[in-house]
Amino acid sequence: MSIAKNLTEIKSQLPAHVTLVAVSKTKPVSDLMEAYNAGQRIFGENKIQEMTEKWEQMPKDIEWHMIGHVQTNKVKFMAEYVSLVHGVDSFKLLEEINKQAKKHNRIIDCLLQIHIAEEETKFGLNEEELNEILKQVQNDNSKLENIRIIGLMGMATFTENTAQIEKEFKHLKAIFDKLQTSNSQLQTLSMGMSGDYQLAISCGSTMVRIGSSIFGNRNYQ
Ligand SMILES: *Cc1c(COP(=O)(O)O)cnc(C)c1O
């Protein structure tokens, strides 16, 4: 199957309110251009350096999403162009994104990453930490005018157990719904990857991050 065919196939399954992020990490620019020529304009990467190299080489009407864990000292390399940072998990990181966005006179959208998986290794906040960060943002005197928190992101456990994954997605959706009642800026719920996006959509996802089902399996070397 070609990248263009994969994209068409996946897009035909997505409801109109669900945004597709094509996760192109490890893939060459030629593969991304194939997706671009098939109409895809939103790409997700998990390493800032790799994303920046691709941004430099590719057309400028692309929205770049950082979906990986972000180190504070690397924010400056993507502040000029990044559209959405999915994996924000500290107030300190928000402050740094704000500071770097300001230098470029931009507003950068952010999602707060919630830990929903059983694995210890996955990054993210629990509900208490999430509320703490939102409170800090609200009380901050500098007002963080160059960032906008537009929603939440989460990754389910890597397992064949669908019931487990569903439970985790529903947990994230419940946190999202609770927050939405008091904060109308929150509209984006980023959950679902190649293996579980249909389930994620049925649980309320509004943004899916799909890599291998579009570009084929990744070859890490
Ligand atoms: C790699 C990655 C994806 C895409 O994974 P696939 O299973 O290839 O669709 C989605 N989200 C994050 C955070 C990732 O790192």
Mean pLDDT: 95
Classified by CATH, the class is Alpha Beta
Q: Helicity level, as a percent range?
A: 25-40%
What structural class do the secondary elements suggest?
Answer: alpha/beta
Organism: Flavobacterium bernardetii
Family: Belongs to the pyridoxal phosphate-binding protein YggS/PROSC family.
Keywords: Pyridoxal phosphate
Protein name: Pyridoxal phosphate homeostasis protein
List the helices and strands and how they pair.
Blueprint: H1 3-11, E1 19-23, H2 29-37, E2 42-45, H3 48-57, E3 63-66, E4 84-88, H4 91-103, E5 108-115, H5 127-139, E6 147-155, H6 162-180, E7 188-190, H7 197-202, E8 207-210, H8 212-215
Parallel strand pairs: 1-2, 1-8, 2-3, 3-4, 4-5, 5-6, 6-7
The structure holds pyridoxal-5'-phosphate.
What report would you give on this structure?
It is a single chain. The chain is α/β, with parallel strands linked by helices and 221 residues long. It has one domain: TIM Barrel (Alpha-Beta Barrel). The mean pLDDT is 95. Pyridoxal-5'-phosphate binds next to strand 8 and helix 8.
Question: Key terms for this structure?
Answer:
single chain; alpha/beta; 221 residues; Pyridoxal phosphate homeostasis protein; PyrdxlP_homeostasis; 19% strand; binds pyridoxal-5'-phosphate; TIM Barrel; globular
